[in-house]
Amino acid sequence: QVQLVESGGGLVQAGGSLRLSCAASGRTFSRYVMGWFRQAPGKEREFVAAINRSGGSTDYADSAKGRFTTSRDNAKNTVYLQMNSLKPEDTAVYYCAADNALGLNWNHRNRPAYDYWGQGTQVTVSS
Fold first, then answer.
1. What is the pLDDT of residue 106?
2. Distance of alpha carbon 35 from alpha carbon 32, whole angstroms
3. Read out DSSP for 25-75?
4. Which of 75, 82, 69, 79 is nearest to 99 (CA)?
5. How confident is the model at residue 5 (pLDDT cuts 50, 70, 90)?
6. Which of 60, 61, 86, 118 yields a CA-CA distance of 20 to 30 A from 108?
7. Radius of gyration of the chain (CA)
8. DSSP label at 1?
9. CA 73, CA 69: separation in Å to the nearest integer?
10. Considering the chain, what percentage of its residues have pLDDT values greater than 90?
């Protein structure tokens, strides 16, 4: 069992930055691929970024490439999402999720691949 708690959301002006954190419970954090998803009002939850177990490999949605960076600190059981150059369309609830997979694969962009989810943190970007 893994419990995930996101933090770091808030209100920011367009062009600003935020860093989200996701703290995981348990001793097996390093065994999980970690993903970030977001859900805007009236829309489906969508993939944002993923990072493999060691942190050496990442993947990003096109909307996040060049602006967002995900990283992890396995010693602290924490994964991060650094978001720069934020836009109003980035406004959403952001979720982290854990996937008990060996590494990034064909499935890590899909919600059903993930076994555990956090409660989400709200990010609001004003224009």
1. 86
2. 9
3. -SS-GGGSEEEEEEE-TTS--EEEEEE-SSSS-EEE-TTTTTTEEEEEETT
4. 79
5. very high
6. 86
7. 13
8. -
9. 14
10. 94
